[in-house]
Amino acid sequence: MTPTITDDELRDRLAPLAEHEPSAAAVAALRERAGRVGVRPRRRRAPRVAALGLAAAAGIAAVLLGPADPEPARPPAPTADVLLAAAAVADAQPSPAVAVAPLRYVRLERTVTFERRLGDRVAVRTHENSVEAWVGSRWRGREMGTAERVSLTGDHELGRPWRGLVGVGPLGGEAYDRAFAYGDGPLARLDPTKLPQERDALARVLDEGMRNDRWGPYAESRGRPSDIPEDAQRAHNAYRTILLLVYARLTGTQRAALLDVLAANSAARNLGTVKDGAGREGRGVLLDFPIKNPGGETWSESHRLIFDPATAEVLEWTMEPLGGAGPAAPRRNELVLETGWAQKVGERP
Fold first, then answer.
1. Which residue(s) pair with 287 in the sheet?
2. Which of 23, 85, 159, 270 has the most CB atoms at less than 10 Å from its CB?
3. Which domain holds residue 31?
């Protein structure tokens, strides 16, 4: 059974990850090919899921048809459509069995930036290093990193206390080879192989599990609802979701469910076609989370993501605390250069 979607709806929704409006030929080809691969409408349980069904068709079209015929550029699609189309693309990606390739391989460039401000004066300290990680279930694996390269820009007088750090390790951070450590947050004991296989159920389990500390490292708090405000909870869950998308050994369906969670819980803005730090073109999304402190001060945490349109892999992500986060809060950027599968630590795709 093929989806009951009009041509106009297909034009509006087709491939939000693509830059141009699809041609008439692309729409016709989608109808023909969708019938051959058995595209079915998703179960209708809420307006969000109905939109997901359209986005799923869009993602499958992007995989099957490739780039649309060049036509005048359209305004960026709504952010939820972009995230849900990315989810549809992710859901279509093949993955080897865990027994064959139990580890996810990631190679990236990590940059952490600190600022000091005094009026109009700004000093910026930047730490950069290269990282390789092999990550399996429950975050077992290995991480190797080069020595940090530390630089100072802006007002050097204001940055005087940092001058002793400038250069390449050891003060800025030595090269390392250590067990991979996700940390002690609520995903510390998560084993992706134990998660549900059905996408909607998986999204619910992940969202509720993060809220209730289902996989936390401490028995006394595991399974208890968080007592932090909802706005802060959404920001924390987005950060954890992005860590899973970048590092965790997941199937395509599991990655799709994580993107469903982001689409449902994010105050987001579609950035259209953007380039990452390596010059690769992708689709950008800004997730902004206003957070109100108990004292009434409002600040925000934002995450900027760039997706590969063909695979929905994260090409680059940036976390930037703003406002009330304070001058000591760093800006974190990870440029993901390569991902893949591995049988053992040290094996590269």
1. 268, 303
2. 85
3. 7-75
**Cβ pair 10, 25 in contact under 8 A:** no
d(CA 344, CA 349): 11
Strand 149-154 and strand 281-292: the pairing is unpaired
204 and 162 co-located in one domain = yes
Is the domain of 41 the same as that of 179?
Answer: no
Q: Of 58, 75, 92, which closes a domain? A: 75
Co-location of 183 and 118 in the same domain: yes
User: Given this model, what pLDDT does residue 311 score?
Assistant: 95
Let me know how long the chain is. 349
Same domain, 167 and 307: yes
- Which residues have CB under 8 Å from 303's CB, separation 6+? 238, 239, 242, 286, 287, 317, 318, 319, 320
Cα separation of 274 and 297, whole Å?
A: 33
- Give 164-208 pLDDT, tens digit per residue: 888 887 777 899 999 998 766 778 888 888 888 788 888 889 888
Both tokens assigned to 202: 């998986």
Last residue within a domain, chosen from 56, 75, 94: 75
In a domain, 51, yes or no: yes
Token digits of residue 305: 């993501």
Arithmetic mean of pLDDT over the chain: 77
Q: Is 56 strand, coil or helix?
A: helix
Name the pTM for this structure. Answer: 0.75
Residue 251 burial (10 A CB sphere; 0-12, 13-18, 19+): buried
**Residue 188 falls inside a structural domain:** yes
